[in-house]
Fold NADPH2:quinone reductase.
Amino acid sequence: MSDHRASDHRLVASRFGGPEVIEAEPLADTPVAAGKVRVRHRAIGVNFIDTYHRTGLYPQPLPAPLGVEAAGVVEAIGAGVAGVAIGQRVAYMAAQPGAYATWADVDPAILVALPDAIDDETAAAVLLKGVTVQTLVHGCARMEAGQTALVHAAAGGVGRLMVPWLVAIGVRVIAHAGNADKAAIAHGLGADVALDCPYGELAAAVRAATGGEGVDVVFDGVGAASWEASLDSLRPRGLMVSFGNASGPVPPTSPLELTKRGSLFLTRPRAFDYVATGAEMDAAAADLFAMLEKGKLGVEIGLRLPLDQAADAHRALEGRRTTGSIVLLP
């Protein structure tokens, strides 16, 4: 541990704004608090929610910590903690940011023990996205074999897991991506139909692919740009799952917009509400790891960068210049 102390630091947003507001702060070498576990990070996941914390879309006190998932090794254990061992490989996803750091003290209830088959970079790349997919598909939408789903940003970090997950349980997937190359990736992941048309043409294309009916469920992490197309792609009594704002927050919408499209259902879920207990988190993670170990899911890490280049990671993510996941290495 002493080898790390001089360089231990975390990254924060000194003010709300663009990637340039990300700055380093030293971490003091203090004893781990009672009820906490210190995790020495080996890999840190980058997610769109990190940009929301940086810009203030999801406001928090400044300087604002960043990052909500990481994988590493248990380095120290506070008083009163049981069931965790020094040197144990773990990963976590946290509702409160702070993972952009060389280490973090976390609640042991959010720790997930890593199987030998799951390496640190894979865990950091997949835990939040994978648990998000598990909760969206099963806990929220309760998808069943024979149903149809439209998946936006199908070649992105979440999309690359959601498409094959849905296919694995027998759902017919219509994928949408930002260009032809990304649509080809979605098709390779198992999507029955892969589109890259403008949003203004998307609903018509979806209806053409479903015999005019529309899909049972739309999974939309894009937000403002795709909002109208998503609603117009649903069958009557279909479910709109809006789970992200990659293009900006969705516009104010009257409930009558749902009525006139056939009594649609709308939800804005948060994964943490579906894994609110340690047992729920363990079950979701076990489901994810089983999918990985059976080869139903693949994890592509499209970009690896040193922790201190997190600003570049945000630029790449917001500029949609990557496919797959982004991992920071301390």
Notes: The chain has a mean pLDDT of 94. The first strand starts at residue 9 and ends at 13. Residues 145-268 form a domain with the Rossmann fold fold (CATH 3.40.50.720).
